[in-house]
What does this fold into?
Amino acid sequence: MSKKQKTESQQPPPWYASGLKFKCTGCGACCTGSGRVWLNEQEIYNIADLLKQDVSHLVEEAIERREGRWTLKENPQNGDCYFLSEQRCTIYQARPQQCQGFPWWPSTLKDQVSWDEAKRVCEGIDHLDAEHFSLNQINEQLKLELESRKLWKR
Ligand code: SF4
It folds into this structure.
């Protein structure tokens, strides 16, 4: 066993080792109020394809650069996501990984307190009809999220 493998196997299991419960109800609460949605270039093309829009037009209308990254614009009145309409996501099939990956974010999975804080916003966390996600499933989701985040700064 390599030194690295040994170190990893000696790490204590995460606090969510027995799994977590979640099911998105589509309530739209995570898309309301200010909170940045970061995305990479491929995701911008995906949205343009879905909306059958020219990419430069889409960027002008709905996307901006902040902190060296691409981000969806927010409604200036209330901070809601630009693509939220009547509590529904209008680009659902092409929504960025950040949206798809919630609540499997490093910040949400940091500890039980962070998970409970997210639960105050998201009714899908520990919902009565929620699915059980095993540790392996959570780690797969977390990996996808981390891979996607590497492409934010381009
Ligand atoms: S707040 Fe939770 S349940 Fe509601 S739309 Fe967002 S992820 Fe789904």
Q: What stands out?
A: The radius of gyration is 17 Å.
